[in-house]
Amino acid sequence: MSLNAHWLIAGLGNPGPRYQNTRHNVGFMVVDRIARRYDISLSEKKHDSLVGTGFIEDFRVILSKPQKYMNQSGPPIARLAAYAGLTPDRIIVIHDDIDIIFGKFKIKTKGGHGGHNGLRSIVAAIGTGDFPRIRIGIGRPDTTADVTDHVLGRFNAEEARMIAPVLECAEDAVKSILCRGLTEAMNQFHKSVS
Questions:
Q1: d(CA 158, CA 136)
Q2: Alpha helices, DSSP H only, in 8-127?
Q3: Catalytic residue positions?
Q4: What is the pLDDT averaged over residues 134-155?
Q5: How many domains does the chain have?
Q6: Between 20 and 30 A from 150 (CA), which of 27, 59, 93, 157?
Q7: Maximum distance among all alpha carbons in the chain?
Q8: CA pair distance 122, 118, nearest whole angstrom
């Protein structure tokens, strides 16, 4: 793996077939889509992550899917970033967000963890919340449903159909951040998805 990457793009999720295609794993889903689009093989295991390197336009990127459980995502991302010599502002984290309605997503330049255990782990591991994120809305469950059951539940057929274009837009947002910068990407996508 080259150390000359410009960006680390990390999707959050839980490893293993039990959690495949669950709401909590939308970060993995977006990274998988990016890998297919840009012909990047996610086949190497390094620093407790599945990783692949390649190019998005002229930017050399490392794609990462941490292979620890969500609440332990931070150390693999921190070690991979350190190995590649990347500062936090060059780490894009893609994750689910129950505080954004289903079918929407938002780009955020930095911030706290907002109760998200994956973000909490990353902030603790790298020592700052100053890294950009793409927050994929999965909505909150109705009042009778448990939040854990909701985030670890799979999309039904209708939800899967509805989430596909959101994941595609998140892919496009990554490219826009790299090529046009965070501010322009936010202006573009926040208008188009609102």
A1: 17
A2: 26-37, 74-84, 117-126
A3: 24
A4: 84
A5: 1
A6: 93
A7: 49
A8: 6
Average pLDDT over residues 68-86: 95
DSSP-derived secondary structure for 100-111: S-TT-EEEESS-
- At residue 176, the pLDDT reads 95
Tokens 């790299």 belong to 178
Q: Say if residue 173's pLDDT is above 50.
A: yes
Name residue 121's amino acid. S
| pTM passes above 0.85 | yes
**For the chain, how many residues are written?**
194
Name the one residue in this structure whose structure tokens are 């959690």.
19
Please name the helix (run of DSSP H) or strand (run of DSSP E) that holds residue 60, with its range, or none: strand 59-66
Assigned domain for 1 exists:
no
* Residue (of 173, 111, 175, 110) closest to 136 by Cα position: 173
Which residue do the tokens 């902030």 mark?
A: 123
Predicted local distance difference test score (pLDDT) of residue 9: 98
Specify if 177 maps to a domain.
Answer: yes
* 107 found inside a domain: yes
Distance CA 142, CA 146 (A): 8
Q: Give the whole-angstrom CA distance, residue 188 versus residue 113.
A: 24
CATH number at residue 25: 3.40.50.1470
Q: Which domain holds residue 106?
A: 7-193
93 closest CA partner among 3, 116, 148? 116
Q: Which amino acid is at 23?
A: R
